[in-house]
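[job 4471] stage=fold_predict status=RUNNING
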Amino acid sequence: MRSLASIVLGFESIVIALSTIVMISIADVDPAVALSVCLGLAALAIVATGLLRNQVGYVLGWIVQAGAIGLGFVVPVMFVLGLAFGAFWVMAIVLGRRIEEAKRAHQSQAG
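[job 4471] inference complete, writing structure tokens
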């Protein structure tokens, strides 16, 4: 589960960081605000990736998902991207748990 979640957060951090440019040039957001919000959220995604060994990382991951969707209020296309990454996040958790359960079942049969 951790590897799938880290992939989602890694790609999401790149997309969120690049949305800074969109916020400044298209949405006419103050550059200081755009830089602090977008790069702060991207940094939070990276921190969450590093903390995925603990439950804290997953909580931070959910906060990143909410923040990415929230950016849609400033740049409407971020609603789509935020929801897409939110769906990827949910899929990573659900499929990751299934993979871990299958590994445990396989190990118990082999052992």
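[job 4471] summary: The chain has a mean pLDDT of 94.
[job 4471] exit 0
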